[in-house]
Structures are given as C-alpha cells and as structure tokens.
C-alpha cells in the first residue's frame, strides 16, 4: 500500500454523491440509454457489461487526514463487471436493472421505502430473481456502485437502530426541542432518514461521547444517568453500526470538535471490528461510509482490564471470532496498539464481556469509565 | 376545531389535589401494613416458629391439554387458582423466595418513605449476588403485590419508557406540555409516567396500535394522521408495562375504540394477545393492564385475496413458527373469550403461511395508509 498523501488519495477516491431525486432519475436514464445504444449499434451490437466499483479489500486503501486525526477507508476505481454473458453473473446482472427500475418509480412518486418494503415490491414484481432479503440488499449496493449515488438518494431509507441519550438538545427546525437528558432508559431513537439528521440543530455542554456496543449496557448507563456525573453523551447502534448512527456521530464530532469520542466494547474481535467501523468506515458501503469516519478511541474493555475480570467470566473464542480476527489482522488500517490487543486475544484464545464487571456492584461500571477517562487510559 | 368534533376531555373526577391526597393516604396505609407484616415475621422468629406465608397463585391462562373439548379450567382474572406457601425453614427453593421478598420489601419501604421511584433493574443491582437475575426480583414484586393486594406502581416500582406516539392528542405530564396536535405527523418519543398526566384532550376517533416501529414510520412518512383523526401508538414489539398502562389509561379516559395492527404470524398474534389478555408473568396485574376491547384490525391471510395481493408475498411458516402457533392455540382464554381469533390462527396454521404488513407495499408504497387501514375501519372489518 503506497503511503497516500492527502491530495493523491483524493484523486483516487471514488465516492457516492448525495443527489436529489431528479438527478438520480437522470443517471438511471443515462444508464438505460447507454445500454440501448450499445444494443442497437448498427456496426457491432452488444449487451454491455455493468461496471461496478469493486467492493473488495483489494480495492480499498487508507487515507489519513493531514489536519485532523481522522483516517478512513476508501474505494478506488477498480471495477468488477456484471455481465449477462457469464452464467454465474447473469441473475445478479438482471437484479441490478430490476432494482433500478423500482427505484426509478419510487423516486418518481417522491417517496422513501425501507429495505423490507422494497423486498416485497420486488418479490411481487419479479419473483424469479429475488427470493430473500439478502439478494435485495446486495443488488441495492450494486446500484450504488454503478450510479455512484448514495443509498438514501435512491429512495431507500436506512434502518433506525441506534439510540442516544445524555447532555444534548436536538432541535429540528419547526419542531419542539428534544432534551436528551430527561428521557427514559431506552433513549432517543435515531431516525434512519439522513435528510432529517442533516437538518438537526445540536447543542450540548458535554465533553465526551461514549459509544456503547450493546443495548443492555447503554440502558444500564442510561438508568444510572451517567451523564449527570460525567458530562457526556451516550450513543449505541446495538451492534454493528448502521449508517444513521455513524452519521449522527460524525455530525456531533464536527459540531463539537473538542469532544473526545470513546468506545466501550466487549473484549473480542467483533468488538474491535465495531470500533474499526466507527473509526475507518466499511468496505461493503465503501462509497458512502468514508464520509462518516470519526476519530474514536478504545476505552474498554482492553488487555490491562483483564485483571479485573473473574476467571470464570472468560469464554473461549469461537471459530467465527477467529475468522473476524484473521480478516482484521490482514487489513491495512489497523493501528499498532490495536493490533497488539488483537494478538493478545488470539494468543490467549479468550474473550470477555463488559457485564463481567458487574460482579463489583452496580455502580462499578460508571466509576470504571470515569476513572479511565480521567487517567487518560485509552488508545 | 369544527363544531361537529367532540372534544373528549379527561374525566374530571379527579382534581389534582384530590389525586395527590389519595396517593399519600394509600402510601401511608401501605407502609403501616408493611410494618405490621414485618413485625409479625419478627415475632414468629423470636418465638422459635418458622413463619409461613401463604401467597395466592394467579393464572390468567393455561394451555388446555385437549383442545377439542377443553375441560373448564379455573383460570380467571380475579380469582386465584391455588396457593404457594413460603417459609424460612423449609429447605427448598421457597426459602430464598421469602428471603428475596423481605429484601425487596426493605427497598420498597425506603422508596415509599422517601417518595422516590426506581425500576426493578435498579433493585436487582442493589444485591446482585443474592438476586442472581432480574426475573427473581420480578417474582418477589409480584408476591408483594399479591400479599398486600396492590399494584406495582403503588410500590413505587416503575420503569419510565419512551413511548412512540403521534396524532390528535395533547396532555400535560408533570412540568412538560406534550402537544402532538401541533404537528400530527411528527412522532413524539416521550417518557410517560401515568401518575403525572393531567389535562388530557383528544379529538381522535380511534386509537391505532401498531406492532413495529417501521410501520409507525411508514404511517408518519405518509402523513396518515393528517387525513385520519386518530392516535397512533407503538410498543415496538412486545409492549412493556408503561406502554400497556398508558394505553389502558387512554381507553379509560377517552372511551375510544382501539384497533391493533400486527403481522399475520404467531409472534404478531402473541403481541396482540398481550394487549388484550395480559401476559402470564404478570397474571395478577393482568386485570389492570389489559385492554379487553382491543379489535384485531389485521393483517389477515384473507386480506391478501380481498385486496388482490400477489400470492408470492405469503411466506411459509417455519417449524418454530408452527410450534409457537400451536402453543398459543392451546391457551384457554382463546376458547373462552375469543373463538374467532382462534379460528383465524387455526387457518394460519392450516394454510402454513405468514404475511408481513410490509407486503402491502407490493400494491403501492402507501397502500397501507391510503386504502387498507381507512377501508377496513370504515367497513368494520376487524375481529
């Protein structure tokens, strides 16, 4: 991997544009016209091949910010081709066109759908090509790679899975203010509509943002009202982060550049993978996700916390964990300190969950977090 | 507002001060009874006797073994079906049950004396090594409720949850003004503690309860409440106690019909049944938490023919779905109180298919809000 200067990287960076419905429809029309032109060419008619930006690790690189500490993974201009002529590819080829057709109609109506609704529409329209949700999701990403526009621009809403709570006041224009410090333990649900998130006004006096992997821990800290003792905002995506949660986290980091962002994950390869997604972005949605990379730090659980965990709380690493560890090890973006932690996990063959800290009492978790932040114990 | 619309005001039976005074009296009474109970336990132990406490067992439904001709079972909402005896000296699981009960009672007494509230998870974390898990605390709270013949919120054990709500309603909760009528298409995610609600006003004609948050989102995006005078609420899956209490409170105060929209699959049906009959874990409180007049609006497998939906949108029932459906069908309250619901569930099992609400978008994206719900309500096609 060649070291990328800021400007050099940007030349190679391929990105998905955020477009208005009319422009996306125009791009779809252009794609159709190109296809028809090739098909009806008088000299050499051909069924064109669809050039999709390749979403593999071979096509991804890391770029580092010059003026800030944010690095992100991005995709370059390598293409994987979907062709009707290749047997293995033919169905995928047709799926791309079917999804484009459906999105064209949806955008024409000025509506937004979620992926499940799109699945049913495609199922009723072309049952032969779509038999499960996975086919639809992959085909949507193919269309994103082809037209180079974001998924939301196509009219497909993200899921709303994340929640946040803490010292933050949200204000949608023309709506009531939402004070996130007086909510119940489930917090404020983050909407999947990125347009709405973009228009939110944010005001806060917090000093830290704590990203929590699991919902149960988030609710525990919310019930304890950790943000009344420590000036912070708590946020969770309940597992692997979705675009909406990463979007709002990024907006928070832009609006409040002096706020430090910490993650609280379990000590296992999946936890580290979640941290890396927040930090660098993902390859599968590589055309959009680089925008929302944030400089997050690993607060816990880490190797030197293991002495706090009782022996019987450790579990064995499963084959799936080892798979994730292997792919993280071979990635280009893992920083040294994180790599050392991952090596420790694999060498000891063990994993531990944050809940193991509850054996010290119900308020230990809050104290643990506060102590680590105050002592600057994060990597 | 047009003169024809009736403003449904909250029943003005309880003024603010009256409610507060009543609460204080109830609390004082409960504290006296707790003291009396503990004194009795101490006296028993001092006299060398093992105190035995009899707790009624409540069951609001059972699974009749023979569904063809169900023998009359004794399940009911009001009467106990049996008793459990708790004692300190018996060497079985009941010993620790009394121990747990006394510990929780201690916490409850402190809450009542200091006029504080907490959730059962908070109580669990006070002595996690003794309680082992939150379900144990849950059972102790149940036992206390049965023993003292009161409800959970009398013990100041509450959970504040965020209910997702939109539509033609407004009320004041404590210090806060919740006015959904200003923008009926916006969802309010509000923490609601029932005790603090007053000035409830609504011009809605009905309440719509939806199972899933995604369906709620769809109705919001389609501006459903602009064209339909109603209140839309979601429990986001299996409804928790505050959501059920809030729904019951709305029904008691506003006297509006309640329609429930769930997926046509065993889990959707289970959620529907929880709203109507209550859950087994909270059998004692079921009478206070259930909304017996809930109407099942849909979706039904018969809908997809009536509304000309493509057959491919029906998905097959998995083995797990079948097991769940069979266990629900065996529940006695379906025989006694809702035989039509039972036949619908049987038809689902027989055809072996399930059907999600999102499938309606195969007709058109806004089919749910534009045609399905308004038509079904107007034509009264619900169970």
From TrEMBL, chain A:
Active site: 120
Keyword Nucleus assigned: yes
Keyword flag ATP-binding: no
Subcellular location: Nucleus
Cofactor dependence: Mg(2+)
Spo11/DNA topoisomerase VI subunit A N-terminal domain boundaries: 93-156
GO biological process: meiotic DNA double-strand break formation; meiotic DNA double-strand break processing; reciprocal meiotic recombination
Catalytic reaction annotation: ATP-dependent breakage, passage and rejoining of double-stranded DNA
Main localisation: nucleus
Domain Topoisomerase 6 subunit A/Spo11 TOPRIM as annotated: residue spans: 208-373
Signal sequence, start to end: none
Gene3D superfamilies registered for this protein in UniProt: 3.40.1360.10, Winged helix-like DNA-binding domain superfamily/Winged helix DNA-binding domain
Enzyme Commission no: 5.6.2.2
GO molecular function: ATP binding; DNA binding; DNA topoisomerase type II (double strand cut, ATP-hydrolyzing) activity; metal ion binding
Short name of any one Pfam family annotated for the protein: TP6A_N
GO cellular component, one term: nuclear chromosome
UniProt keywords, alphabetically: DNA-binding, Isomerase, Magnesium, Metal-binding, Nucleus, Topoisomerase
Protein family membership: Belongs to the TOP6A family.
Subunit: Interacts with TOP6B.
Function field: Required for meiotic recombination. Mediates DNA cleavage that forms the double-strand breaks (DSB) that initiate meiotic recombination.
Name of this chain's protein: Meiotic recombination protein SPO11-2
Organism annotation: Digitaria exilis
Taxonomic placement: Eukaryota, Viridiplantae, Streptophyta, Embryophyta, Tracheophyta
Automatic annotation (TrEMBL), chain B:
Primary enzyme class: isomerase
Key words of the record: DNA-binding, Isomerase, Magnesium, Metal-binding, Nucleus, Topoisomerase
Active site residues of this protein: 125 (o-(5'-phospho-dna)-tyrosine intermediate)
MF terms (GO), sorted A to Z: ATP binding; DNA binding; DNA topoisomerase type II (double strand cut, ATP-hydrolyzing) activity; metal ion binding
PROSITE patterns documented for this protein: TOPO_IIB
Ranges for domain Topoisomerase 6 subunit A/Spo11 TOPRIM: 206-377
Cofactor: Mg(2+)
This enzyme's EC code(s): 5.6.2.2
Stretches assigned to the Spo11/DNA topoisomerase VI subunit A N-terminal domain: 97-157
Gene Ontology CC terms: nuclear chromosome
Pfam families noted in UniProt: TOP6A-Spo11_Toprim, TP6A_N
Localization in the cell: Nucleus
Protein name: DNA topoisomerase (ATP-hydrolyzing)
């Amino acid at each position: 991997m060649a070291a990328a200067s800021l400007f050099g990287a940007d030349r190679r960076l391929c990105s998905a544009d955020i477009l208005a419905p009319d422009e996306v429809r125009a791009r779809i029309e252009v794609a159709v016209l190109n296809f028809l032109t090739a098909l009806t060419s008088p000299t050499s008619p051909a069924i064109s091949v669809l050039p999709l930006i390749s979403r593999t690790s071979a096509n991804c690189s890391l770029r580092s910010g010059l003026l800030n500490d944010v690095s992100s993974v991005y995709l370059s201009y390598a293409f994987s081709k979907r062709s009707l002529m290749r047997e293995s590819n033919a169905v995928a080829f047709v799926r791309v066109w079917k999804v484009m057709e459906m999105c064209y109609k949806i955008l024409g109506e000025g509506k937004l759908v979620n992926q499940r609704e799109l699945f049913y529409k495609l199922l009723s329209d072309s049952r032969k090509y779509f038999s499960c949700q996975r086919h639809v999701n992959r085909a949507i990403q193919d269309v994103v790679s082809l037209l180079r526009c974001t998924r939301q621009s196509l009219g497909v809403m993200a899921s709303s899975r994340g929640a946040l709570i803490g010292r933050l006041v949200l204000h949608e224009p023309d709506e009531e203010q939402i004070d996130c410090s007086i909510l119940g333990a489930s917090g404020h649900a983050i909407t999947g509509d990125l347009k709405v998130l973009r228009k939110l006004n944010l005001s806060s006096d917090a000093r830290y943002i704590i990203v929590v992997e699991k919902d149960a821990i988030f609710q525990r800290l919310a019930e304890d009202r950790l943000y009344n003792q420590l000036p912070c905002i708590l946020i969770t995506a309940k597992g692997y982060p979705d675009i909406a949660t990463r979007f709002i986290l990024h907006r928070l980091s832009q609006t409040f550049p002096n706020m430090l962002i910490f993650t609280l994950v379990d000590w296992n390869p999946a936890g580290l993978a979640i941290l890396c997604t927040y930090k660098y972005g993902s390859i599968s949605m590589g055309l959009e996700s680089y925008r929302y990379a944030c400089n997050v730090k690993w607060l816990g659980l880490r190797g030197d916390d293991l002495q706090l965990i009782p022996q019987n709380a450790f579990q064995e690493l499963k084959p799936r964990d080892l798979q994730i560890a292997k792919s993280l090890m071979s990635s280009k973006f893992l920083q040294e300190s994180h790599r050392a932690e991952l090596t420790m996990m694999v060498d000891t063959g063990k994993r531990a969950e944050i809940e193991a800290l509850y054996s010290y009492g119900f308020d230990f978790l809050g104290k643990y977090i506060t102590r680590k932040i105050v002592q600057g114990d994060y990597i | 507002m047009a003169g024809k619309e009736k403003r449904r005001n909250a029943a003005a039976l309880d003024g603010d001060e009256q409610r507060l005074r009543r609460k204080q009296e109830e609390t004082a009474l409960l504290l006296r009874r707790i003291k009396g109970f503990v004194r009795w336990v101490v006296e028993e132990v001092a006299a060398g006797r093992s105190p035995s406490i009899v707790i009624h067992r409540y069951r609001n439904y059972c699974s009749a073994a023979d569904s063809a001709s169900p023998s009359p079972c004794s399940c009911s909402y009001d009467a106990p079906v049996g008793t459990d005896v708790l004692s300190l000296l018996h060497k079985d699981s009941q010993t620790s049950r009394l121990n747990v009960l006394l510990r929780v009672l201690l916490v409850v007494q402190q809450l009542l004396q200091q006029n504080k509230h907490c959730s059962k998870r908070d109580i669990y974390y006070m002595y996690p090594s003794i309680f082992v898990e939150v379900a144990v605390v849950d059972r102790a709270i149940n036992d206390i409720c049965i023993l003292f013949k009161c409800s959970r919120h009398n013990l100041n054990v509450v959970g504040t949850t965020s209910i997702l709500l939109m539509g033609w309603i407004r009320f004041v909760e404590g210090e806060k003004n919740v006015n959904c009528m200003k923008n009926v298409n916006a969802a309010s995610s509000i923490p609601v503690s029932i005790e603090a609600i007053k000035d409830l006003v609504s011009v809605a004609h009905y309440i719509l309860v939806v199972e899933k948050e995604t369906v709620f989102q769809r109705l919001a995006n389609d501006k459903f409440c602009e064209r339909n005078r109603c209140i839309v609420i979601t429990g986001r899956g299996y409804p928790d106690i505050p959501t059920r209490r809030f729904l019951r409170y709305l029904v008691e105060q506003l006297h509006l019909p309640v329609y429930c929209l769930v997926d046509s699959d065993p889990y959707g049906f289970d959620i529907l049944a929880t709203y109507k009959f209550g859950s087994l874990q909270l059998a004692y409180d079921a009478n206070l938490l259930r909304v017996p007049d809930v109407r099942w609006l849909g979706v039904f497998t018969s809908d997809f023919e009536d509304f000309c939906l493509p057959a491919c949108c029906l998905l097959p029932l998995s083995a797990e779905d079948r097991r769940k459906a069979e266990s629900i069908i065996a529940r006695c309250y379906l025989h006694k109180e809702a035989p039509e619901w039972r036949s619908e569930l049987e038809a689902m099992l027989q055809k072996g298919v399930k059907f999600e609400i999102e499938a309606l978008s195969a007709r058109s994206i806004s089919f749910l809000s534009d045609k399905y719900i308004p038509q079904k309500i107007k034509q009264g096609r619900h169970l």
